Amino acid sequence: MPVLLMLRFIIKRLLITIPTILVVITITWGLVRLAPGNFYTGNKKLPPAIEQNIREKYGLDKPWYEQYRRTMWGILRHLDFGTSLTYPGQSVNAIIARSLPISATVGLLAYLLALMVGITIGASAAIKPNSRWDYGAMGLAMLGISIPNFVLGPILVLVFSLTLYWLPPSRWEGFPSRNIILPVITLAAIYTAYIARLTRAGLLEVLRSDYIRTARAKGLSERQVLFRHALRGGLMPVVSYTGPALAFLLTGTVVVERIFILPGLGNYFLQASLNRDEPLIIGIVAFIAIILLLMNLLVDIAYGYLDPRIRY
Amino acid sequence: MKPDSPNKPGDQENVEPAITPLGTPPAPPIRPRTGDIIHTTSELAVGEGDVRSAELGEVVRGTSLWRDAWRRLLKNKLAVLGLAFVFLITIAAVIGPAVIRRVNGITPDYIPSDAALIKSFPPFRAPDGSFSATHPMGTDNQGRDLLARTLQGGQISLMVGIIATLMSLIIGVSYGAIAGYLGGRTDSIMMRLVDVLYSLPYIIIVIVLLSMFKKQTAQGQLILLFVALGSVSWLTMARIVRGQVLSLKNQEFVLAARATGVSTTRIIFRHIVPNTLGPVIVYATLTIPAVMLSEAFLSFLGFGVQAPLASWGTLAADGSQTIGIYPWQLIGPGLAMGLTLFSLNFVGDGLRDAFDPQMRK
């Protein structure tokens, strides 16, 4: 694909993406601000003088437009989301920097697992459509979509930790540890199911197309047809699912981190929402939105590479 | 019934199917009576019609898209099983708690006294619950019957699923139909907004919304939940409907309606929208489990349904706390929810295959 066209496409998309991020931050800011009450109404009662001082320190005594200007300016100028109210003295950036690696590790491992298992299951079902294996695999995939991860997680804990004593039930102990296995499986289950379904549908569509017939007609082995020709086209739906999958991943981690008590981004987000820690809420939501939108951009670019018919 | 009266269900078992090819929009029915163009919703939506052949003078009965779809759906065993299960669980959720009350006097929120609690359990059972004829699914931590609570929770879960789906249906269909029919700049602005909303981490925003505007009463929070879930789940619906409308709006029947001076609003909602119902129903069926899952997810995290109301999500949340000691407290409600979502997904898949045979793999 011509590099210039690609560049133009990326710039065009960025021009949409940046205002979108601002819209997300504004919506979140508005929700947090419009709601009755504030951080200090829900928590421990402070003497009025102290509360006044704290409000001044964080700029909460200013009129709303001034606060909005400050928040936006901080984010736009230095990517600075301010200071958390629940964790005094800790910047939102520091909290994100500390918790993101945990969520990202679990999330990425889950996604890799889901890709490997999902594509394998989906492809093997597509090769023999309407066979017993196909029905079994798709039934399993439907089950994976239908069982919520907050049911699956505790059941896995019950079986593997509390009954068989194979794996630890919770806690974060760094990356290469056995603690990570159950959270990753819990998080991966639903994507595995989706990816298997998408792979099967995509491959079946492609396997019936003319260019596959040509490939077969010129005497390629079934194996070559599948791996060299069919998979590339057949995986298009899976690629376009990557964007939404990331959104799922983020919501999934909220639950998984809660079940397995992992100090990740999702857990901080939950705490912040419960405590009305406004800068932390805005910071995490804005951060998630930025990642999500950039990922969607990447997916669109990847699409162009996989499918030469797509022109920007 | 007169031979040339419009088709009624059940009177055409022996008729050759498919006069109207599937996938093509229905031809306007030719009626023996000429005169005003009468558009009734069913006529336009269903597209069935008795075609009176001019030469032969006999009535050839068409089979409707709906009847065809229904027949294909009935052939899909999994979808039928799913439909049956959804039907059963809905009935059970609606009348179940009352039946249990009739049979053994237990209400979902009946908490036995400590003395009764102690007396009712053999010492080798778990102290807070037992499986017996009175509590086939055990009890929760406070001695409440889990079967009754699961059924009652099902009411709330199903209600959230249906109401939020209806909301997404109303918003999505109107939005998509208006964007698609008006076209041009309006369309591109409206759909660009959908694109933007699509890329947002909506469930995160819903959590912020629910936690910020937390209501004092459980009913208030439930209504907030309907609004929050309904207002984020209409996007795909809008896209689907817009796509359909784009392909429909240049058809002759729309032209005819416009020529006879029908207003734009009326054309959109009386003439075009009924013809998009097939895909809309399919997608709505798939929206119900998705919304129920979101509700359960939010309730599990404590932002959704609030006590004293319970849903499958809150029951699962309670159960997951005690998974090591009283696993049935999670497994019962979890199984009820899992099976319902499973069935609804199969029904949705079956409907999609039924309405769009080309998609069938």
Morphology call of chain B = elongated
Q: What is the end-to-end distance of chain B?
A: 40 Å
Q: How big a fraction of the residues of chain A is strand?
A: under 5%
Oligomer classification: heterodimer
Protein chains sharing the most extensive interface: A-B, 49 and 44 residues
Largest sheet of chain A: none
Number of helices of chain A: 13
Following the backbone from N to C, one meets helices and strands of chain B in this order, namely HEEHHHHHHHHHHHHH
Low-confidence stretches of chain A: none
Determine the fraction of residues in helical runs of chain B and give it as a percent range. Answer: 55-70%
Q: Radius of gyration of chain B from the CA trace? A: 25 Å
Mean pLDDT of chain A: 80
Tally of separate helices of chain B:
14
Architecture blueprint of SSEs:
The complex is a heterodimer of chains A (312) and B (361).
Chain A: H1 3-34, H2 39-42, H3 48-57, H4 64-78, H5 92-127, H6 132-146, H7 149-163, H8 181-207, H9 210-217, H10 222-234, H11 236-259, H12 265-275, H13 278-306
Helix pairs in contact in A: 1-13, 5-6, 5-8, 5-11, 6-8, 7-8, 7-11, 8-10, 8-11, 9-10, 11-12, 11-13, 12-13
Chain B: H1 41-46, E1 50-52, E2 59-61, H2 65-75, H3 77-104, H4 114-120, H5 146-182, H6 184-198, H7 202-212, H8 218-232, H9 235-248, H10 252-259, H11 264-272, H12 277-301, H13 312-321, H14 328-355
Antiparallel strand pairs in B: 1-2
Helix pairs in contact in B: 2-14, 3-5, 3-14, 5-6, 5-8, 5-9, 5-12, 5-13, 5-14, 6-9, 7-8, 9-12, 10-11, 12-13, 12-14, 13-14
Describe this structure in words.
The complex is a heterodimer of chains A (312) and B (361). Chain A is mostly helical and 312 residues long. Chain A has helices spanning 3-34, 39-42, 48-57, 64-78, 92-127, 132-146, 149-163, 181-207, 210-217, 222-234, 236-259, 265-275, 278-306. Helix content of chain A is 77%, strand content 0%. Chain A starts with a helix and ends in a 6-residue tail after the last helix. In chain B, 62% of the residues lie in helices and 2% in strands. Chain B contains 14 helices and 2 strands. Chain B has a two-stranded antiparallel ribbon with strand order 1-2. The two termini of chain B are 40 Å apart. At the A-B interface, α1, α6, α7, α8 and α11 of A face α6, α7, α12, α13 and α14 of B.
